Amino acid sequence: MKTLIFGAGNLLLSDEGFGVHFINYLQQHYRFPEEVELYDGGTLGIMVCHMLEDADHVYLVDVIEATGAPGEIFRYEKENFMLGRLPIKMSPHQIGIQEVLALSELRDRCPDKVSLFGIIPLSYEAGVELSPLLADKLPGLAELVVAELRAVGHVIEPK
Length: 159
Description:
Blueprint: E1 3-8, H1 18-29, E2 30-31, E3 36-42, H2 49-53, E4 57-65, E5 73-77, H3 78-82, E6 89-90, H4 92-106, E7 113-119, H5 132-135, H6 138-151, E8 157-158
Parallel strand pairs: 1-3, 1-4, 4-7
Antiparallel strand pairs: 2-8, 4-6, 5-7
């Protein structure tokens, strides 16, 4: 079973780069087996269709605009994407991800399991660092994702 952890975001706009910072955090703190791929998707959107279609399970990590407090993390599953039930406004590159999933579904190549972890940003100001609030969320989200991967049999070790 191939699993893709896909971090989206723009590293030049502070918290907008959360997904990419998340991938970097995982790479720095864990060793993953070859069937788990970590991918810095940046702002590629629709250009990553092949990455998503080659996986059985996809974890997307990005910022979202939703009702709640900065730093709050929400989880959505494939059904939410496909049925248009996301009560959030997603960033421009994530709309591309939604389009990719819809295209993949039409082509009967969409992964069976797609999960989005979306976090409400504190700042979109120019800068390459996360706000301290969002930086503090990286370890907890990493532990959650790693625990899920271990629960389905992936061997992941701390560095």
